[in-house]
Design brief:
Length: 390
C-alpha cells in the first residue's frame, strides 16, 4: 500500500465517511544561505524538499470544518464552522489552517461550504524545516482545489504568511511560505524579500549532496528570541534612517554600513544589523559562486554565515555549534552552517557523495559524546512546491 492509499484509508477511519477524496501536498524547505535576512528586506536562497505535509480532503454540504492530524492524534478532531474563525488556544496546530481559511475568506474568496481534512506531515517537528508553512500551503492548495478558486501561487504564499503573522501571531518573514509554494525540483530560489523578485538557480552540486542534520533539541526559545532579534534590527534601521534614505537593512552594502554604523547607539543592535547587512551580501555572492561552479567558495560563504549567526546574531547555541564544528572537521565537507531560526533545529551541509556515510557516522558518534543524545541525518532531494497530487 502506498503512503497516499494509506492516508485515504485513514481518512475513512477518522471521519467515518466513504466517498471520493482529493490529496494535496506542500513540501518542507531548507535555506542554503541567507538567514534572518528575509524580514530585514534582504536575499535568501532556499529550496523545497521532497518531504512535507499531505492533506486528504473532501467538501461537506454544511458549514462545518473538521480537521485531524496524524501527528497530533491526542487533540482528536478539531471542529468549528465557517462562522467561528477565531483563534483558540486549545485548537493548537489547527489554528494554522483555520487562519489560512479566514484570510482566504477575508480576501473575498467564495468558500460557502465546510470540509474535512486529514493531515500527515513527515517533516521532523520543531526541526526548523518549515512545518508550519508547509501546513499553511497544503491548506491553501486544498481550498483552491476544493472550491475551484482562481488564485495564483504567489497570492496563496502571501495569504499563508498573513495567517501566520496576524492570526497565529508569529511575525515570520515571507521566505518559508515562498520556498514551500514556489519550489522547483533540482533548483533553489534566490528571492529578494524586499521586492519579491526571484530567480531559480540550478543546484549543480556535481559529486556532492545536501545533508540536513537535526540537533533534536526542541526550539522553545526560537519564537521569543526571533521577535527580539527582529525588534533589535528595526531599532537599528530607525537610527540609520536619520541619515540614510533606506527602507530596509537589505538595501545597504557592507561599505555603506561601516560608514554609518556609528549612528546605531546600542552595541547589540549594531551587531544584529551588521549580520543582516553582511549576510545579504554573502547570499548574493554565494549564488554567483554556485552559477560559476565554484562550490568551494559557496562552502566558505556558508562557514562565514554560521560564524556571523553565532557571534553577531547569537542564535546558534551549543547543539548547532557542535554539529557545525564537527561537520567542518570531516573530510569531504564543502560547507556547513545552521539553517532556520536557530536555538536548535537543523544544520545544512554540502558533502561529497563518497564521504556521506562516513560523515554521518563520525558526526553522529561525536555529537552523542558531546551532547548526550543523538542527531538525525537526511540526505535531501530537492522537490517541487505545493500542489494537488493526482
Amino acid at each position: 500500500m502506498t503512503l497516499t492509499q494509506g492516508l485515504r484509508r485513514d481518512f475513512i477511519d477518522v471521519f467515518n465517511q466513504e466517498g471520493e477524496t482529493r490529496i494535496f501536498f506542500a513540501p518542507g524547505r531548507v535555506n542554503l544561505i541567507g538567514e534572518h535576512t528575509d524580514y530585514n528586506g534582504g536575499h535568501v536562497f532556499p529550496c523545497a524538499l521532497n518531504f512535507g505535509t499531505y492533506g486528504v480532503a473532501r467538501k461537506r454540504e454544511d458549514r462545518k470544518v473538521r480537521l485531524y492530524s496524524k501527528n497530533f492524534k491526542d487533540l482528536g478532531i478539531i471542529e468549528f464552522t465557517l462562522d467561528q474563525l477565531k483563534y483558540k488556544e486549545d485548537h493548537g496546530w489547527g489554528n494554522f489552517p483555520k487562519g489560512v481559511l479566514k484570510v482566504f475568506k477575508d480576501n473575498g474568496f467564495a468558500i460557502d461550504k465546510g470540509f474535512e481534512i486529514l493531515y500527515f506531515g513527515n517533516i521532523p517537528n520543531g526541526a526548523g524545516l518549515s512545518s508550519s508553512a508547509s501546513l499553511e500551503l497544503t491548506t491553501s492548495v486544498a481550498l483552491r482545489g476544493l472550491f475551484e478558486l482562481e488564485v495564483d501561487m504567489i497570492s496563496m504564499v502571501k495569504m499563508s504568511q498573513k495567517a501566520e503573522n496576524d492570526f497565529v501571531g508569529v511575525s515570520c518573514g515571507i521566505m518559508d511560505q515562498f520556498a514551500v509554494g514556489m519550489g522547483k525540483r533540482g533548483k533553489a530560489i534566490l528571492l529578494d524579500c524586499n521586492t519579491l523578485k526571484y530567480k531559480y538557480s540550478t543546484l549543480e552540486l556535481g559529486d556532492a549532496s545536501i545533508v540536513i542534520s537535526n540537533t533534536n533539541k526542541s526550539r522553545e526559545l526560537a519564537d521569543s528570541k526571533y521577535n527580539e532579534r527582529r525588534g533589535q534590527c528595526e531599532r537599528a534601521l530607525l537610527q540609520l534612517q536619520e541619515k540614510l534614505r533606506v527602507k530596509s537593512l537589505g538595501e545597504l552594502t557592507g561599505e555603506k554600513f561601516e560608514e554609518h554604523k556609528a549612528l546605531i547607539t546600542n552595541d547589540i543592535d549594531r551587531k544584529r544589523a551588521k549580520h543582516a547587512v553582511y549576510e545579504n551580501q554573502r547570499t548574493i555572492e554565494a549564488v554567483i559562486a554556485l552559477e560559476k561552479g565554484d562550490l568551494e567558495k559557496f562552502g566558505q560563504l556558508m562557514k562565514a554565515s554560521h560564524i556571523s549567526l553565532r557571534d553577531d546574531y547569537e542564535v546558534t547555541g551549543k547543539e548547532l555549534d557542535t554539529l557545525v564544528k564537527l561537520a567542518w572537521e570531516q573530510e569531504g565537507t564543502i560547507g556547513s552552517r545552521m539553517t532556520g531560526a536557530g536555538f536548535g533545529g537543523c544544520t545544512v551541509s554540502i558533502v561529497r557523495n563518497d564521504m556521506i556515510d562516513r560523515f554521518i557516522k563520525n558526526v553522529g558518534n561525536k555529537y552523542v559524546e558531546k551532547i548526550g543524545y543523538k542527531a538525525d541525518f537526511y540526505v535531501a532531494s530537492i522537490g517541487d512546491g505545493a500542489r494537488e497530487l493526482k
